[in-house]
Amino acid sequence: MAYSKSESIGNIKFRSRIDKYEFENGNYRTIDSRYFDSNGREISALTSSTPQKWRAASATASRMIDALRNAAPFGRWKVLKYKYGDGSNPRSDDSREVIALTNSFAFVNFNRVTAAKTSCDSPSLDLGNLQKKEIEKRLSISLDSLGIASNEVRTLSIRCHGSNSLMFLTSPGKAILLWDGMFLMMEREDRSGFTFPPVTIK
Q1: Integer Cα distance of 100 and 123 in angstroms
Q2: Number of structural domains, the chain?
Q3: Is residue 7 part of a domain?
Q4: Which of 38, 69, 100 is the endpoint of a domain?
Q5: pTM higher than 0.85, yes or no?
Q6: pLDDT band, residue 68 (cuts 50/70/90)
Q7: Do β-strands 75-84 and 105-109 pair in parallel, antiparallel, or remain unpaired?
Q8: Do 49 and 88 lie in a common domain?
Q9: In the prediction, which pLDDT does 86 show?
Q10: Residue 120: enclosing H or E segment and its boundaries?
Q11: What is the DSSP secondary structure assignment for residue 92, as one 8-state letter?
């Protein structure tokens, strides 16, 4: 959130702030707040990573949630093709289940992520930027094999009950989701009328 003029907390002035929210059962809370001066420098004295108390979603918060639901990376994504976790292409002896990933759908929302017939309820989501070298070291793969050449990649980290997934936002409307050891190359579809599948498979 940016302000038209400087605001202050105590005797420390700030010009903008970024809040990270957690949502659960219609309630929300702020879990992280970062403040910046007029030059865009972070003011460490104001930064807080202490979660606040849960609050019922007000009319303003409800509008914010609705806006989030309609913005990437949230929405329905169509899987155009897939690759294995080592970056290799589909194989001639792939199982029917693996082949069926193509033209399937992934559903991403702040309270549920579903792909490849598995889902995660109440995930922890973290949107940010990661360096290419950091990702390649973590995944032991060259991002060039996925068609990612940029040195910095916009990502959505998805943590769910001890397991981690990663979504690369490669361009407007395009993304690559690392899910259950497979890379899913996806295209975002029109969000209007979007609903989750009626059955959640865990």
Answers
A1: 25
A2: 2
A3: yes
A4: 69
A5: no
A6: low
A7: antiparallel
A8: no
A9: 93
A10: strand 118-121
A11: T
Task: Kindly state whether residue 197 falls inside one of the protein's structural domains.
Answer: no
Instruction: Write the DSSP assignment of 130-177 as a string of letters.
Output: EEHHHHHHHHTS-GGGGT---SEEEEEEEEETTEEEEEEEEETTEEEE
> Within this chain, do residues 170 and 115 fall inside the same structural domain, yes or no?
yes
Tell me the pLDDT tens digit for each residue of 8-57.
787 888 888 888 777 776 677 888 888 888 888 888 777 777 778 888 87
Domain boundary at 19, 34, 69, which? 69
Angle of CA points 33, 55, 107, to nearest 5°: 80
Question: Which pLDDT does position 201 carry in this prediction?
Answer: 33
Q: Domain of residue 50: give its range.
A: 2-69
Is residue 88's pLDDT more than 80? Answer: yes
- Greater model confidence, 27 or 107: 107
Query: Looking up tokens 């599948």, which residue turns up?
Result: 197
Sorted by sequence, the CB contacts under 8 Å of residue 109 that are 6+ apart come out as 69, 74, 196
